[in-house]
Amino acid sequence: MNTGPNFPPATIEELKKVIALTGLPDEHLQWILDHTELWEYEDGAVLFRTGDPVDVMWILLAGRVSFYLDVNGKLVYYFNFENDTQTGGVGGLLPYSRMKTAPGFSYAVGKVRGLALHKKYFQELEHLNPDFIQRLVGYMTERARHFATQQLQQEKVNALGQLAAGIAHELNNPASAINRISAELIKRIKQNYELTEKLLQHSISPLQIKGIHNAVQKKESEKKARMSALERIEKEDSLSDWLEKNNFNTSKGISETFTEVGFSTADLEAIRIHAGNDAFVHILNWLDNLLGSQRIIKDLDDASCRISNLVGAIKSHVHMDRTNEMQATNVHKDLENTLTLLGYKLREKNITVKKKYCDNLPDVPAYVGELNQVWTNLIDNSIFAVPKNGEISIATECDSKNLTVRIIDNGHGIPKEIMSRIFDPFFTTKKVGQGTGIGLDLVNRIVKRHNGEIKVNSVPGRTEFAICIPLIPVKQEH
Length: 478
Fold this sequence. Notes:
- There is one protein chain.
- This protein has helices spanning 12-16, 26-35, 122-128, 130-201, 206-221, 229-245, 254-261, 265-275, 277-317, 331-341, 343-348, 368-385, 416-419, 439-449; strands at 36-41, 46-48, 56-71, 74-81, 90-92, 104-118, 327-329, 352-356, 364-366, 391-398, 402-409, 453-459, 462-470.
- By secondary structure, the protein is of the alpha+beta class.
- It folds into three domains: 12-128, Jelly Rolls (Sandwich); 165-312, no CATH class; 324-470, Heat Shock Protein 90.
- Strands 1, 2, 3, 4, 5 and 6 form a six-stranded antiparallel β-sheet that branches. A five-stranded mixed β-sheet has the order 8-10-11-13-12, with helices on one face. Strands 7-9 form a two-stranded antiparallel ribbon.
- It is elongated, with a radius of gyration of 35 Å.
- The protein starts with 11 loop residues before the first helix and ends in an 8-residue tail after the last strand.
């Protein structure tokens, strides 16, 4: 701390300008002058660093101090201390504070001048003026509230960034697939001109084309038993061997295409007999190109549907295009949308999700955007808690009055020593950026806003959150 006799001494008139000291008698202000050290810092100087002991309350006479919280080694701006109604011009260690070390860096903004009162004088100051101590406690409470709010906002931004990155990853996969498919389709369309020309050179009649078309339609309409990988390989090998034995020079992968449609060597033999050997190989290559094009068009449809479903899930989850009034919602659909948006996290840990939904669930009156935050937080917590290849179960139960949603995981469980604190404001066991940002405190408040109840039971290997929501809307007081 930059202290010394060369600085102009502080005066009672200077102290009277400090908001936190307003109304104190001159003798109490003189006591402060007698028990403090004067200090000054130039603009940009560091007052405190992360981990520095904090054992003084400082009183700002001039300038201001910016505080940056140390978040896993990264400094994040949080607060300004200056002579205003929010901080009162006091900072550092305040009476009854449990802070021992600085949680970040404090920088001088402009030339800063102040006084430092060591904590050893706090008890004497309380005897001198207990009302002033209560005033300082009020400033400390306001500071803690502001810090907590800032921390919540920081967590929300981090969580939003994580969710956005995950959604971008989810969208990138089908978008990349669409790009690959479009390139493949362009290539196959060009090939189709050449293959059709070769068919015409062998005088293939419209009747033969119709016969082949009917054969394909029949195969596609037949209900096929799901083949194992070994069965598929055996059928493909059988077709390849037959083509090679009969000296048919066909395109690469043709046996895979015809096996997928359901063609056997007997089916190909029937086409060969009807068309003749010379035309048959060109029919095979033409049909392979056609069937392959149909298959990748189906892949294209799947990819575009995946994008549409993701966009729909995002829109529904964040409650876009709706008012903030209580509205009826399908909770099962909301849970599915949440699982869709967190799908990338589930796949990263290869988590199995088991679902057991009640039948005939009526729509639930809810603040939909807020209730979706509850599902996101609880499912995300379960994903965080379970090991790789873990399991999460989601079950719903409903009667004429209530809906109960149970989210169960086989993770490590919640330690008994912190169970009573999990719904405390801003309590978390996660590092910054790992959670959804809203915390179980806000989850609890959202559930209560719906006149519902949340309960938790946890032992190692099984943690269950049960959320009970009434099916009859409750009028909210404003």
